């Protein structure tokens, strides 16, 4: 995403506040991966990965990596007590059964209805959806972490997605370097504004209409 | 869901979830791998009008057989009731409604519910009684029966060892339907021979990840006599 | 079946001749269970059971039974080196994938086309099909062991089954106390006649027409 | 089938079954759990016009990525090719035909082929691109897409240990798609770190029963550099 390390960390730290003790959580590649760094080990959060593990832990020390124990991004991890290994059908069974409390994903576009587009830019970038559709549709709560605008300065929070969808009505919360926005039945609610931005700046950078939360008005 | 504290419960605490009219899934094959302490608890509590979903009716006093024999069961979705003559008797008297499925189909229907799929296409039993009224679907020129997923209110399973997160390891042929029903119900209660701390199980051996398990109950062991012990 | 032990053993011994080294075999309840006794351990035949084991071995010694290790009839067994345990979906996956070389089943009726009826007598005996339909339809070869006639003296080898079917066109070989009969595209072929019966007696006791094998004529 | 003798083969003996136009299923996720020695053998043998079925395109020189990068692959049924830019390039040049499925759906389609079912009903991806042209089926008032089973000519898998009957045990996240493709092809070749005698594996730990495995090949280990090793 080309976002500064500091901003990426800030978004990840804010996202970590959405996690509570004992939750089952799947983190996507990119900024979402950083979220784990902000969650205390004694919370016993169980991190799930699509290729067959529930209960991944911190990165191993240099030289202690195991080539058969990586996260979904291919980077070496460890496991925590209570972890289990299984095949990919079990990994996705857990997702489709609705046992993921939260999945945190990156996005290209999110619509005011919570539609998510994060896997394809036709004619340009066609990586495939991997597990994104399963996660977006299956998890109890979907949190999107992304830059507020794209490289051309255009809002990624849109009235209607222009890119092919990953899943409809799936996003619950959007966290960017500018704001925290909740997807509600009434529309997008601006809940928090990040330093050094103002409410007006966030509204100006957001294509979709925003309802300003009472706590920001007061 | 808060899954930090141990899932360990007393039998009474766990039985709160099993009420009259419960759609109750169970593990076990002829009683092998059925949870004796939970079944005893259900019997003692007086639960009735149960809708059982599992492989078979076991034997008259073995496994779920005891619940059936004592008239606590209103309906069964199963593959075989031949080893428990009380089931056949109740069925012919109109007191027990039984739906039969080929065993492999039943297992897959339950797994389907457990992994969040809508159903499977299967050809076992085509053009026999079990084909009656089934929706047919054609795929690549071949015809299959559509079998919808099965789910339940509560699943009761028997496992050899669990850790406090609810990860389960089964023992030999006592595994059978246990890992399947463990995934397929709203609430899963595992009766376990031994509950160990997190990290004490080999993570490669875990057959049911703890995320599927809601409550753990310690087993008091089998309180019935197996057919092979009777002579 | 109420057949004398001696006759049951004879049928089982004959059936064992259909098994070759290394085969994967599922034995039904009743006479089929006895077949294992006639197969040498060094043939490394892998016996499969529906409730999740491949590689069962002989009965344990009295007092050494394991209540969690039984055959599909509920009787204690052991396992051989190379055995594996799995859940019921895997057990039936092996069957439907066509990996059973032979299944040996009991029957109520077999038709001249190889239709099998072995699970229900409407209004009388309704035990359920258990794994019989999966086995009859899925195994590469289906061998039926049964008494030649029922308790009323009526042939169980019929032109058309009167009982509800387990599976159509599935039986390959029928072994009774009187005869060995092969199901072919041309019809039922009488291959062997058991002592002390004659070809004529077998034909008389069989409702379906029999083609007499050349080796019996000569 | 004669399964008494050891299934152990040399790489060359096993590769006889992998020819041009082969529908080749493979285990692995980003190369983790893909069989390096068999892939090297396929490359050296010069096999081309392969039809790959597996999770992803790995990295340019990792796993099946090397076969793709070198133009040996005609089509792929997969969930993700983003980590191997050569795949995207070949695809946009019309030299590689790629069919994408949601990863969980792909896994279940392969399992379906492996256990002899005709297909599954799934709702992941409904009303998105992947829904185009899919047969729809209604079950209990809910609509699903019908996804037919997938099978292959040959499956190549990587396992940590095998016994001589072909029973397989995998290692950590190298399990992923391996047990699924191991069931779904006409011929299954397992590359294994260690082959032990019958009886040397814990029968409770076996993830793939040997009856699914036709040939065993000893692994020479990974001959690529992982992304995390590059700095």
TrEMBL record, chains A, C:
Q: Which Pfam families match?
A: CoA_trans
GO molecular function terms attached to this record: CoA-transferase activity
UniProt key word Transferase: yes
Q: What is this protein called?
A: Acetate CoA/acetoacetate CoA-transferase beta subunit
Sequence similarity = Belongs to the 3-oxoacid CoA-transferase subunit B family.
Q: Which UniProt keywords apply?
A: Transferase
- Report the NCBIfam families cross-referenced here: pcaJ_scoB_fam
Automatic annotation (TrEMBL), chains B, D:
Known InterPro entries for this protein? 3-oxoacid_CoA-transf_A, CoA_trans_fam_I, NagB/RpiA_transferase-like
Domain of life per record: Bacteria
* SMART domains tied to this protein: CoA_trans
The cross-references to Gene3D superfamilies, in alphabetical order and at most eight, read: Glutaconate Coenzyme A-transferase
Gene Ontology MF term list: CoA-transferase activity
Q: What are the record keywords, sorted?
A: Transferase
Q: Name one Pfam family in it.
A: CoA_trans
The protein's matches in NCBIfam families, at most eight in alphabetical order, are given as: pcaI_scoA_fam
What this protein is called in its record is Acetate CoA/acetoacetate CoA-transferase alpha subunit
Lineage, opening ranks: Bacteria, Bacillati, Bacillota, Bacilli, Bacillales
